[in-house]
């Protein structure tokens, strides 16, 4: 048995014994002992014979907010996800904000089990906010959780390009490259999702339940989209749009403004771009393409040809690759990497293999360094066109290679009758495919089809 599993079992025993020894644990047992739930059989050995209930000491701090008011605690710096989530969960437990004695007794498990921390953290946040009478905890938690989502793409380029559904996840990966671990992002998304489902004591409608924390839901939607949670991203984008529309309506009624009472998606997109650098319209287009909703593209402005990228998305969506190719060629305002990737994709879909081959040779001669997305497109085009001598591949090292690079190496090795390298490269290509599937989400399997 591994040392880690021994620690987890020891911590689980400690937690169970302590919880069942409390007054709450005793009440639970008295209520459920007459039921036929088989779980009670497993819990019975952990009951103690003591008649005196275990008293959980209260954590009274002079300034309980101070312990959690630390940006490095909420945003992983150089730490990996496991260390970060354990540190954060234990810090929340030690802060004194949690009043539930059951939750307070879970610390031994939180110190040794990552998955357990991810499960418990939303409950801790909820319990803290339930006891928050002056909104001091709400303000603190909102600031740091919002800071986490903002940090996800603060240093990333906003030059993502529209691709076919096969490359939608790689597009999001490009935007969030070098940012926080996907596990960390999903953990924070789970907190937002759990809180949104809980009834606020003072709220009037279900819509108000989404605002336990004061968050910019557009930024949350962007992170959800990058984690392949497409329907969740759509929901948060809608919450953002509804809130902005309500705020605009209130402003108009206060100033007795006349005119249209509706807020268009174009005006919302302009405001969102000013506030956070994210275009609501572009995000909706990306989401709808991810879930395979062909008609929704036009509903959020895909049919309007004002913006170059919107126009390109529409052309690609309608498989009008000729028009897409011309637009990529003419629009100099688009970044060079986006244009090059778009031209490669368009030439490939038009079946212009010879022109693509010549174009790749030119790019190979011109570009000294390639971004990851362009490299993948280059390798894909090269093996499809049997272009073995004009690729950026400098060695056949299989380990660490991307999917299309591994596939290129495998086919080239088969051509050269290097069978050991062929099998090794093929193995790594399969590994990369599985890794790509792991990045997906069962919220929408549409984006997984190309990989499958």
Automatic annotation (TrEMBL):
Molecular function in Gene Ontology: ATP binding; protein serine/threonine kinase activity
GO biological process: DNA damage response
Superkingdom of origin organism: Eukaryota
PROSITE patterns listed in its UniProt record: FAT (PS51189)
EC number annotated for this UniProt entry: 2.7.11.1
Transmembrane segments annotated in the record for this chain: none
Protein name in UniProt: non-specific serine/threonine protein kinase
Species assigned in the record: Equus asinus (Donkey)
